[in-house]
Design goal:
The protein is mainly beta. It has one helix and five strands. A five-stranded antiparallel sheet has the order 4-3-2-1-5, with no helix packed on it.
Length: about 80
């Protein structure tokens, strides 16, 4: 059973090791496995893919995304 989430970073911590969708300012989206994050929500994704309109634009592998460019992180149900 999922632990109670009391802070936003609790939810992000629960998503570590799982697939997440990350949307950036400007509409760019990335899908990948959340490996790490810090208090500024800078994140590291493994097996990352850049997507547009649900279609894979390019496969990037490991990426670092600066937190101030992120507008949404959505944990996958996988």
């Amino acid at each position: 059973m999922t632990e109670e989430i009391q802070r936003p970073l609790d939810s992000l911590n629960e998503a570590k090791g799982k697939t997440v969708l990350v949307e950036l300012k400007g509409g760019t989206q990335f899908v990948g496995i959340l490996k790490a994050f810090d208090i500024h929500i800078n994140i590291v994704l493994d097996d990352a893919q850049e997507t547009r309109g649900g279609e894979v634009e390019r496969k990037l592998g490991r990426v670092f995304i600066r937190g101030d460019t992120i507008i949404m992180i959505s944990p996958s149900e996988q």
